[in-house]
Please model this.
Amino acid sequence: MTPDGKIIIVTGGASGIGKSLVRRFHRAKAAAIVVADLNGPGATMVANEVGGVARTTDVTHEDDIAALVAETEKRFGRVDLFCGNAGVAVRDKDLDNAASADNAGWELSWRVNVMAHVYAARAALPGMIARKSGWFLNTVSAAGLLSQIGSASYATTKHAAIGFAEALAITHREHGIGVSVLCPQAVDTPLLGGAKGSQSVDGVLTPEAVAESTLEALAAETFLILPHPQVLTYMQRKTGDYDRWLKGMVKLRRRVMDDQSA
Model:
């Protein structure tokens, strides 16, 4: 899967990884890029930079995503690559209580980190199935494979996002549709907010580096995109000995908590 000549939608495209993906797709000669974001002026700035189209979109509203896809198909004839990049992180209110985030935080996390991907698939799949081609690139997180210290809602919803992406890939490969999940650890974006938590143990990547890794993995049609390659080792340790992995995560949590209180 290469961007050359493709019609691409990027949600969360006004900043961070989304913005870098838009720029990198443009350099790779995408035919058209639709930059969608809740931040409409930000989306417009990025779209203008690459000669793309901006659309103010709230990914928690299914009607917004349906309209985004419908308008793109009407204007350009199809959607070749849908990049579901919008995300949200809600921290635990009490770092010593994994259930302390309020219901509003859990619901927002669920709608942005999981249901937005479901809405995108509902909207884009019919056209892709009819053409027997298309690709979904869902930005998830290494937290969806491992965990996230200090945000149970983030870890939980990102695990769910991985589960949906797997179902999407299994169900629709025979329709000619591909799926990739982008799972970095710490990236220097507004979502990180300067935090130095567990996600930063292997270094903080730039959004540009993540975008470069993503294009390489898309070209290889890789499902699991790991800009931090160490994540694969951690996954193998987790599945190889779950209890030992959990004990290691407890130690990591204590280290992070001690660093934050220092």
